[in-house]
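Design request, tokens follow.
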């Protein structure tokens, strides 16, 4: 049975279009580069003398850019085409990564972070339509799933490389200058992102058939908009909670436990592996329990581990285990939640829903990231984890109250549970 599954998977992948294969290559390189940068960047800023308040404010800019420009980015991608949008966004995003690696100027850091976030917005908004337009129905789930897996693999390798490279360079050059070592690592990460331009440039622009069938972006009836509002409400609370802690996990381990960059890279890599395993188990659990109950259960189960992260201050092993469990539980619910959102709405409203729920998540994430940096600087690293647990609890309870009956009605109408397609935004 397993052999047949693997054989079928490989056969389907071999049938992917050239564009799909080039996209997966580019996605891997981009994921690798951004993971290398993600592990080190906060440590780089801290070593340069910046405090958590500034770091949090600056990190929030990428989420702010996504929240403000998600809908304009979707409109631009439709007009300019997927290849041009993704190629230009990758070029600018890589360039702004390099700028951030080469400066400690507040103005340049702020500007490059915001503009880099805008570039990431255009790229991210373009990927799902690109995969839809460059795959046949029978292979579409495989492409979405493989894209998710490639991103996770790139995250594992990038986190390891980004964490270990400063330590290796320190041994090679025998220098204690952490700022220089971190800077070289950030430049290496931007180089990986720049490498994605080659596969992206080789893609062929495909005009989507039936684009006009989606209807105007503000179409839909009252019921559709009520559902979008409820999904956005739940996303808002997850974004608030995620922004309080996720951007600061590397600083959390470095400041509270004196972990090295290499150790932090390992923590992040194992978290990615645990997430991949959890995501693979998610569909089976959703088939047994239903999507809504699975999402709610995973969010609620993550709460004790968030509280543990806030409370523990002298047992590194416990903190690392709690970090891994929190990541895997919350991320398990992410593709399930995104699939349910798409299935609960008519086709013509899905792009609109995707943009608006993404705005809710990213704007709340940006706000809480800026606030959390100031709060950590003033009150320490514990309080944000307790607040995150509260935010996730509000989201979980709201999700259950809003959608448990919706899912039952959907199953009763179709006679079966809706299919699961992996993909979409991270759930926190």
């Amino acid at each position: 049975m397993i052999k047949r599954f693997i054989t079928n998977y490989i056969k389907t992948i071999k049938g992917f279009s050239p564009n799909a294969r080039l996209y997966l290559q580019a996605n891997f390189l981009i994921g690798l580069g951004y993971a290398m940068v993600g592990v080190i960047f906060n440590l780089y800023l801290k070593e340069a003398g910046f405090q958590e308040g500034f770091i949090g404010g600056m990190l929030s800019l990428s989420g702010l850019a996504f929240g403000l420009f998600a809908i304009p980015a979707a409109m631009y991608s439709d007009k300019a085409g997927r290849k041009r949008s993704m190629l230009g966004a990758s070029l600018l995003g890589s360039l702004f990564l390099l700028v951030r690696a080469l400066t400690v100027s507040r103005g340049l850091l702020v500007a490059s972070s915001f503009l880099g976030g805008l570039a990431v917005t255009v790229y991210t908004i373009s990927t799902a339509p690109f995969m839809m337009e460059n795959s046949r129905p029978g292979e579409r789930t495989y492409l979405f799933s493989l894209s998710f897996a490639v991103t996770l693999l790139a995250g594992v390798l990038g986190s390891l490389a980004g964490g270990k490279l400063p330590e290796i360079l320190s041994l090679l050059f025998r220098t204690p200058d952490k700022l220089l070592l971190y800077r070289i690592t950030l430049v290496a990460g931007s180089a990986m992102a720049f490498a994605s331009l080659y596969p992206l440039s080789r893609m062929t622009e495909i005009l989507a058939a039936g684009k006009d069938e989606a209807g105007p972006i503000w179409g839909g009836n009252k019921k559709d908009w009520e559902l979008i509002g409820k999904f956005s409400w739940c996303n808002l609370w997850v974004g608030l909670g995620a922004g309080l802690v996720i951007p600061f996990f590397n600083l959390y381990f470095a400041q509270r436990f004196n972990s090295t960059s290499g150790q932090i890279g390992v923590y992040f890599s194992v978290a990615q592996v645990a997430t991949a395993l959890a995501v693979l188990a998610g569909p089976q659990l959703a088939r047994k329990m239903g999507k809504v109950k699975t999402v709610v259960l995973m969010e609620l189960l993550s709460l004790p581990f968030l509280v543990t992260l806030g409370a523990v201050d002298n047992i590194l092993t416990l903190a690392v285990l709690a970090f891994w469990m929190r990541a895997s539980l919350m991320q398990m619910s992410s593709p399930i939640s995104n699939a349910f959102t798409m299935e609960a709405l008519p086709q013509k409203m899905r792009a609109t829903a995707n943009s608006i729920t993404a705005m809710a998540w990213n704007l709340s994430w940006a706000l809480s990231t800026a606030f959390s940096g100031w709060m950590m600087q003033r009150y320490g690293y514990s309080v944000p984890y307790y607040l995150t647990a509260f935010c996730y609890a509000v989201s979980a309870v709201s999700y259950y109250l809003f959608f448990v009956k919706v899912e039952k009605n959907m199953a009763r109408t179709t006679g079966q549970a809706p299919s699961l397609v992996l993909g979409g935004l991270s759930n926190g």
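Comment from the thread starter after seeing the answer: thanks! Confidence is low (pLDDT under 50) at residues 209-216, 416-426.
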